[in-house]
Amino acid sequence: MSALRTDALPVTAERGSATWRLIKAESTLCVRDKVAPLWGIGFPLILLIVLGSISDLREPVEPGGVLTYFDLYVPVLILFNLAILATASLPTTLAGYRENGVLRRMRTTPVGPARVLTAQLVANFAIAVVAMVLFLAVARLGFGVDLPKHLPGFALAWLLAAAALLAIGLLITALAPGRGPATAIGTVLFFPMMFFAGLWVPISQMPPLLRNIAHYTPLGAGMGAFQDAYLGDFPSALPLLTLAGYAAGCSIIAVRWFRWE
Amino acid sequence: MPPVIEVRDLHKRYGDKVAVEDVSFTVQEGEVFGILGPNGAGKTTTVECVEGLRRQDRGEIKVLGLDPRHDRAELTRLLGVQLQAGLLPDRLQVAEALELYGSFYPRPADWRELMHGLGLADKAKTRYAKLSGGQKQRLSIALALVGSPRVAILDELTTGLDPQARRDTWELIEGVRARGVTIVLVTHFMEEAERLCDRLALIDAGRVVTVDTPAGLTERARVGQRIQFRPSRPLDDRLLTALPDVSAVTRRGELVIVDGSDNALNAVTTVLARNQIVAERLRVEQASLEDAFVQLTGKRLESGPR
Q1: Which among A1, A6, A110 is the nearest to B104, CB-wise?
Q2: Reading across the β-sheet that carries B279-285, which strands appear in turn?
């Protein structure tokens, strides 16, 4: 024990930056946590494959329309992934960090807890990118679903949707007093959000009232923007602004209310 | 040489409850400074203000010339902290945690050596949640040292450790001190304070009762000797109570227990010899820091770690 040295050693070269190491560590932890890989990627991927094998879903949603039911499920499942990350993975992890004093411990280091938060966001974002690319590829190669015709428009819509959902995740973290409540709030939010994304009933087949509500929910807006991009148009302003509004609004409230301990 | 830590007239309240009433002390370079007191005395609040985790309501704190309220960024590079309840993500492995935390500092220690030195090498790939209480404790000590700090603040260092692990940890701390790291040790465990600390601040109800060396404290408390023996023949207590150096005589079974001043042993053995009584199983206890604490504050500390 006494042979221990804490002299500074020339290890700087192999260290890499603390931020990068944190991002790597948080990504590893996200994968080990299993919520993101299992529920965020595995489950929607299986759903995609199962739904892709049902021939009834290859009928157009509207008579003479371009998009089939299955075509619509691809963006819905991409939103499913974002919703899992935002309501289950991110807030549970961060609220747990706060509850267990992980963030407090970070406050005593030169790095500080804000970078843990950033690293968690980056890790979840990376998982979301992997899921999005994977779902598009499986749908294209496995089931012949065309990629969105307006790719830049789709990319922008996806980025805004990811920003809006991660901001909602941060908001849950900020408002929930602990890990348990964070999980509860996330679960309660998940189902209505997915409903308005059209997981059970396509938005176009909802009654007018629900359809109008859907346009102003984060996932409904995301779905609207994705559909525009699939049909080859640049997404219209309303869904994009709705998503940007959620991203900005939730972030601002989250930052104001956030507690480190 | 200016002190490494200087705390003056510290005051901190939480709502109506005063946690720290008035605390002042200085810590010199290279010493192990103990902050000793019962639970709820304000020890942890005091060091949290020093660490910059809390802002005091009144009073001045300087650590290596820095103000923890304003120079946090600079301070965190020089100060290693072990929190009483400072945790890691459940799924982070020991080696990962040490490597990661090392990367936060400009001149980190060799985390592999720390891991070996603290007996965690065979747990390198074990997740934090799977560690025992003692292993978690040792990891948190390693994390406090991984940045090669000039000052380390260790809160309840050996709480939850078994006796062997506690002695190993003490040895480790002595090794750290030998390298010139100034150490502040928060404890309510007497044996630890006696063994490790150069000086101690005794804190009770948010105030510093006294600051002294462990030996100085016991001396100042004027608690004398306790002598315990089994007389070879029946013994009349009055022979002993008559002695001016003896303050009390009690019996526990066949044992006689005599409390008295530092000269009591001489006086008692003389009387026994004169009466041809042999003191079998003779034991003499010096006053402990614990006795001194009781004497100085009128309260008992817990005798061991929680």
Answers
A1: A110
A2: B246-252, B255-260, B225-231, B279-285
Contact A1 B118 (CB under 8 A): yes
Question: Between the CA atoms of B1, B5, B10 and B15, what dihedral angle is there, to the nearest 10 degrees?
Answer: 170
The β-bridge partners of B202 are: B36, B210
Query: Looking at the predicted structure, is the pLDDT value of residue A173 above 70?
Result: yes
Q: Do B108 and A15 touch (CB under 8 A)?
A: yes
Q: Which of A3, A4, A105 sits opposite B87 (nearest CB)?
A: A105
Residues B273-286 have a mean pLDDT of 86
**CB-based contact, A5 to chain B, within 8 Å:** yes
Distance from the Cα of A142 to chain B's closest Cα (Å) equals: 35
Buried b vs exposed e over B240-254: b needs ≥16 C-beta within 10 Å? beebebbeebeeeee
Beta-carbon contacts of residue B73 (< 8 Å; ≥ 6 apart): A110
Model confidence band, residue A14 (pLDDT cutoffs 50, 70, 90) = very low
Interface probe for A, chosen from B79, B83, B100 (most Cβ of A below 10 Å), is B100
What Rg do the C-alpha atoms of chain B give, in angstroms?
23
Indicate whether A12 pLDDT > 60. no
- Kind of pairing, strands B151-155 and B79-82? parallel
Cβ distance B174 to A97 less than 8 Å, yes or no, reads no
- Residues A99, A178 contacting (CB under 8 angstroms): yes
Instruction: Tell whether the model's pLDDT for residue B220 goes beyond 80.
Output: no
State in Å, rounded, how far the first CA of chain A is from the last one.
34
The count of C-alpha atoms lying within 13 angstroms of the C-alpha of A197, restricted to the half-sphere facing its C-beta, is 25
Measured CA to CA, the distance from residue B108 to residue A95 in angstroms comes to 29
